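FAQ: What does the model actually see?

It sees only this:
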Amino acid sequence: MPTPGPDAAEIRTFRQELGLSQAAFAGRLGATVRTVEDWEAGRRSAPALLRRAFFALRQIESLKHQLALMVSGQMKIRANGEDITADSIETTRAALSTFETLLAAELLDAPAPTSHANL
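And it is asked to produce this:
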């Protein structure tokens, strides 16, 4: 039997952990607000792949937080004996943004959104 997708409570809890409205969450996933509303109300089953997306989005959020700390100077990282530069951080942000867009497209088997939220 295939693994079921997350239930309504799991979806709502995850969205709230991220501090996102239903509209913002839908945008991050490349879904419609109605789809998120239906998932959270239990009117529609979420795909099983959404569990993997939750894991990936948690990792992305963690990396974004670390990047913000680095940009603010509260956290320094060295690689190969050199400080990571602001240019490297911006490149990483762009890569995360691209990954997030591709993840949404793969998850929902839909075209990737042409715009996405700022990191």
